[in-house]
């Protein structure tokens, strides 16, 4: 439905069109969104736990986690609130390397990312491995600020950015696809920006 | 010219039924959806504009009206000069226009009677909009839950819904309005003239008969960060604080 009198718009340059998913606009800043107050997690209190159901597989403190092999990912990110930001540079530990350090193969097809503030979000395990996702420790070469999820946040850049849980403190393998915080509140279980899977009623 | 969305589309045409300027920068638009929708206080809708070449822009706007206010839902839209969608509404949109709308959406930043109270609402600028839906919902339901609304605006003339809020405050029915102006002196004896801080939050909480069960904070990211920290500084547990940020 064409909107009467709407012509101008903020069309992205045509050479970047292919990088902007449907319904998104290009953002130069880095907006902050969260469901509650920003937790201040001190690195001396930080830990990261890999779990299968309720059972811990392995737990790392900040120093141990930072000693894992680190990788860099520079990716476009897409927020469900319709902004897309190009070329965000992250450094951290690939989920593959977390699993390797724990000495496990992915035991189930689904994962819940868990956070210090009680937030959670579900991601199929296959979307976290084979170089697709990391637990990020640095943004633009510097520690991630608390409002952007520091000290550590999940980075799953090919899904809407609420899947990239801020203040992450664990990954929990689950037998079923268990909805997380926003998925229980009307948002899509998978969240592919290219299929515009914003809300639970989207195909 | 207008093509109806397919029946299974979550988008629908809504007609602008009324337009009313609220402040120099904020105008309310009432949208009458072609399929009536039921919303909860605090929810938002998505709006989609389509240019003749197919280019689309979509944004989320909080609903200001109470669920029981009638078939048209009120969105109070702030004009952002560098915006893409809000200038269209302020400069072009007219009563009778059809706009595509999706929703209501959102299941976190909502207040229902079953949530109980007391509740503490903290809004900065147009961040008051979803809080207004909660206040109106409480009033229209004759709900007695104690509510304190701390509303920060730059100046008196930018206090959105000012007359209505002061009218509700005057009823003394358990709703308390605390205005704070960041760029002008306070106009009412109980109001403030500074940015929100922990002492202001503590004093707002003292107006409630007991500690809040839930706190809702909405505004710009900078405002929400400051207000959430002020609430925590006033002893409000982080777990009961729900935030909604514009992002920037």
From TrEMBL, chain A:
It comes from the Bacteria. Residues 36-182 form the Oxidoreductase molybdopterin-binding domain. SUPFAM superfamilies: Oxidoreductase molybdopterin-binding domain. InterPro entries: OxRdtase_Mopterin-bd_dom, OxRdtase_Mopterin-bd_sf. Residues 1-22 are annotated as: Disordered. This is Molybdopterin-dependent oxidoreductase.
Automatic annotation (TrEMBL), chain B:
PROSITE patterns: FAD_FR. CDD domains: FNR_iron_sulfur_binding_3 (cd06217). This is Ferredoxin reductase. Its cofactor is [2Fe-2S] cluster. Residues 9-111 form the FAD-binding FR-type domain. PANTHER family: NADH OXIDOREDUCTASE HCR, PROTEIN RFBI. Gene3D superfamilies: Nucleotide-binding domain of ferredoxin-NADP reductase (FNR) module (3.40.50.80), Translation factors (2.40.30.10).
